[in-house]
Amino acid sequence: MGPHPAVAAIRLAVRRVLHDILTDDEPATPRPAPRRTGAYTGGHRAGHEPPSSPLVLVACSGGADSMALASALAFEAPKLGIRAGGVTVDHGLQPGSDARAGEVVLRLRELGLDPVESVAVRVGRTGGPEAAARDARYAALDAAADHHGAEAILLGHTRDDQAETVLLGLARGSGIRSLSGMAAVSGAGGRYRRPFLHLDRQTARKACMVQSLPVWDDPHNADPAYTRSRLRHEGLPALEKALGKGVVEALARTAQLSRDDADALDAWAVQAATAVRDATGLLECAKLYALPPAVRRRVLRSAAIEAGAPAGSLFARHIEEVDRLITGWRGQGAINLPGKVVAQRQGGRLVIRQG
Q: Where along this sequence does the record place binding of ATP (predicted)?
């Protein structure tokens, strides 16, 4: 008799991702040795040479999604000759968080993962509590992957998480890229992999239950002070009540379709960015005007970022103001952008530079 359907589903999802990781790595040069840096504060195994088999880490909070992911990784990785390890990040935002992180480490080791460690981070305030915690978490995961020479880090985001991300992007009004949600593969060199984007949260929880895996429910996930929590417990249920079941699946499909469109437009914009410049490298307004709006605005955004505008602070309203220098030229003055970047029209050229 085979495994429970929920367990079979999570294992299949992880198996496919591990196959992809191996395939992606085949033509690569020999794997670099783990970097030993003084800035890294997690655990390490000084003096040990890196084994030849690839290492894949799982980011585990102790919640149902990531524990299900860890169990599937521990089961599937050895069959493919892959070493499996784990990292848990202690954000220090709740009393006893260090003790809980220690418990997660023990659970991961019980699954047979190695190396396993807990990394404590300090969460700042930039962008709000949720964004600051996310930034600190990914910085810690990047450091852990570099330290151990890991090929990839698996993340336990589910289809439900994807639906929430799409709705948050819709609320921001940030355009099609924000509607594309989370990518199955992201990060430098495709470091981050999300095997569960096509599985619902209940499947992961069921897989933990039938395997008797203890899970921890983060109280922040039920705290109405957090936007995502309100969306999860109030917004999505209200949408399903009004529109019927299937809202989560539809939003997840929207994410994939939006990502495909956004990727195509981004590629078009990269090509167009060269064609709309003169011999000195300045953007020509007439050529920009001839581009479709979606492509032109991407070219303008890229030019602003190249000039020094922080991508995270550059919003749609900024690009719309710059776009009016092309499409609604009435002799208006320079546009101030984040990062002390200035955009202005001069003699049929658009000049974007540090002010």
A: 61-66
13 annotated ligand-binding residue:
no
Q: Is 66 annotated as a binding residue?
A: yes
What the chain holds in terms of domains, given with CATH numbers, is: 5-243 (3.40.50.620), 276-354 (3.30.465.60)
Residue type, 5: P
Confidence of residue 124 (pLDDT cuts 50, 70, 90): confident
Beta strand spans in the chain (E): 55-59, 83-90, 116-120, 152-154, 185-186, 192-193, 283-284, 335-337, 341-346, 349-354
Q: Given pLDDT bands bounded at 50, 70 and 90, which one contains residue 45? A: very low
- 186 annotated as a binding-site residue: no
Q: 174: pLDDT confidence band, cut at 50, 70 and 90?
A: low
Give 297-312 pLDDT, tens digit per residue: 999 999 999 999 998 7
46 appears as a binding residue in the annotation: no
For residue 223, say whether it is annotated as part of any ligand binding site.
no
